[in-house]
Amino acid sequence: MTISILIILTLSSTTLPQSTALSSNTALSPTHSISVSQTFSELLHNTQFRTQHWQTSPLLLQPSQTQIRGQFTVDDIADNFASQFIVAGRGTFNEKTGGWNMAAVGSTPRPGASFEDAKVQFSDVQSALSKTSGTVVINSAGAYMPSLAKVCEECLDCFGLPINMNLYITAAGQVTSAPPHTDKQDVFVVQTQ
């Protein structure tokens, strides 16, 4: 399956800390292969980023392919849906109002009485990706997916600011995954696939 995976990290603050020492807990675990601490630590200590880009203007970085690209893939997503209870939505665009809404992924409520019966399955995600607006959104992905929780921890260690992570999974060939918009927070977009 050809898809794009975007991890959206949002920081809520008006100022960056001058310096934050990285925690000794940032070592990679067997369930965590993606690391953003080096990239974000370099940004934090970059005067040009702090004065010209933070809360002012966009900045496109091309991190090393080995740092991020391919470190969180569709297989990781499938594994997480198999083992975790994940709530997901599919972005839908309303041509008349120009608004972006969320539709449920999977049946709601799911039939069955058990935890396993109620879980959204990866096949539900695949089905949602085949729709006209094929972007699946997992809000607060770091709360559901252990490997992404570590990324949130790294960002917290680096910036010392509250962090949230959303995950956008977009099918190949989609013209727009989300309509143009602004966010109230500072946003880092990390494309892993």
Order of strands, main sheet, comes to 3-2-4-5-1-6
Proportion of residues in helical segments? 25-40%
Number of E-state strands: 6
Provide the gyration radius in Å. Answer: 17 Å
- pLDDT under 50 segments (min length 5)? 20-32
Structural class: alpha+beta
Q: Please give the count of helices.
A: 7
Main sheet properties:
6 strands, antiparallel
Shape: globular
Proportion of residues in β-strands: 15-25%
Cα-to-Cα separation, first versus last residue: 11 Å
The residue-averaged pLDDT reads: 76
SSE series: EHHHEEHHEHHEE
Structure description:
The chain is α+β, with helices and mostly antiparallel strands and 193 residues long. The protein has helices at 37-44, 47-53, 74-83, 115-118, 122-129, 141-144, 146-159, and strands at residues 3-11, 89-93, 100-104, 135-138, 163-171, 186-191. Helix 1 packs parallel to helix 7. It is globular and about 55 Å long. 27% of the residues are buried.
